[in-house]
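Team,

Forwarding the record for the chain on the shared tracking sheet. I've put the sequence and predicted structure together so nobody has to dig through attachments.
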Amino acid sequence: MFILKTSNSISQIARLRSPKFRQTGTNCTLSFWYYNYGESVGAAELQLLVDGEKKPTILWRTYYSEGNQWLKAVIQLGRLPHAFQFSLDKISLGIYEGVSAIDDIRFENCALPPPALSCEGPNHFWCRDTKACIDNLLICDLVDDCGDGSDEESCDPDLQCNFEKGLCNWEQDVQDDFDWIRIRGPTPTANTGPLKDHTTGTDRGRYLYLESSEPRQFRDKAVLLSPLFNPSENGTCVFRFHYHMFGKQVYRLSVFQRTVSNTKGLLLWYKFGNQENRWIRQTLFIRSSKPFQILVEGTVGDGFTGDIGLDDVSFLGCTLYNGNLPTISTTTSGTSVPATLPMNNCTEKEFVCRASGHCIQMIQKCDFRPDCSDKSDESACVMEVCDFEDKDLCGWHQPALEQMSGNSSIRITRTFMWQLGRGANLCPEQGHCPLTDHTTGTEEGWYLFADSSNGEFGNTADIAIPVISLTGPRCKIVFWNHMNGSTIGSLEVLYKSSNRTSKLWTQSGSQGPQWNRAEVFLGVRSNFQVIFRAKRGVSYMGDVAVDDITFEDCSPLLISDKPCTSEEFMCANKYCIPKNNLCDFVNDCEDNSDESPSI
């Protein structure tokens, strides 16, 4: 069907009405092909007319000539429970000719789920009237998936919010750059943001959105805080939400989980860039051994067509926590000691074993060999093997970040830094960070990565270990690294002793979409730290990640009370080493006597 404009009349309007439809299912979409060509062909828009509502909802618009070509429009309708019809309005302006046409109108996935004869199993829900069998994860998500509303009955209102009457029990963060805005209808800027909310599918419904126009600046952040929840170690707590990311300059939406009130916590999920003009559902399974809170963070892109929408947030299988989250001390990791020590006769140069009060030399603390019966001499040290699977940094810490967090006047929200992440939750499409970890080879595995969506070109992020007192002659670090992306920076392994820092290993540029093994020899060293330094590239398309960091054969040599055997060599310091380790260019004795020319 087409409109051929040949008249000179100003503001001619052609209107095409659809038949009436009774209702639609949750995943309903409308698509059609359109042609809009001519010097003053004018605008066209598709309106939704719902029975009982006076004002139509704009579903789609084209403002001008789009060339001598057919283009496809796809419109998300979603669940519309009341009778409705469409109106396609075409306005022509000026005196020049123009042609508008429409063809191949198609509705897809618009029926309600069919009735089922049975609906067994704990993962399904049997709808009361329609007898449809739906997934249990669709219960109490603010969407009428059944078609009779039975999946949304008996739901706890404290675990869901559609923002129709406010923020419910969610709050705006006061430590961010600006706030989410509650709105109905289109956002103020054309070609970005939603035209309607997700709850009602019309412009009378309300939702939250992030405004990217001035005075907002690139990478400004708006954070929304959930209520607090009790621990959920078995993963039965589920967070559902719908997001809208439409516009050429849309940047990032992130979800964090925190158990400490003055940190951002663990990154559970994020999405970059334009995701088209549609609401998208996301489901996250939450595991936590401590009370926790969810943070939804929107980040402004480099321009005004970067609005982000949020609607219909809900929790399933979660319970509210009646208390407050603790705060974390900004003291450098590995330096804290208990307030009281057991009775002892140790000097200031000795370490006190926490259980027995036994005294050991300070050089024996953090040397990869437990000398105390309770292993307390190794408790505040770096772990010998770290795979990050328990979401523990294993003693690794970020000195610069701790200094910044200790200064309340400095914001760390946009800092290029290391953090824990996992799999496809982070970047399933761009591929510039790992889709799976190295330890488990799955999307659920954890690793450490330097988030290049923050910071600027050339920024560095350091993560270090507590001071190691002494290592043995064959000590080495083995780790796996992932460096993929068009603008990847570099990764360095540094050695720091006192005020002197030297480079042990470095790698720069993209190394491909796989985990790569690296090995760094340390040998005999004392009172030193190891630092992993990531340097940011020119853009966010390239995250440096590491996993499975192991300190191999790092405990120092042990002096035995027994004499050396015939197969061993006695070092000048009384250590015994295998004779086949002599003159091998390795300081096995730790005093170099095994490499002496006089042997």
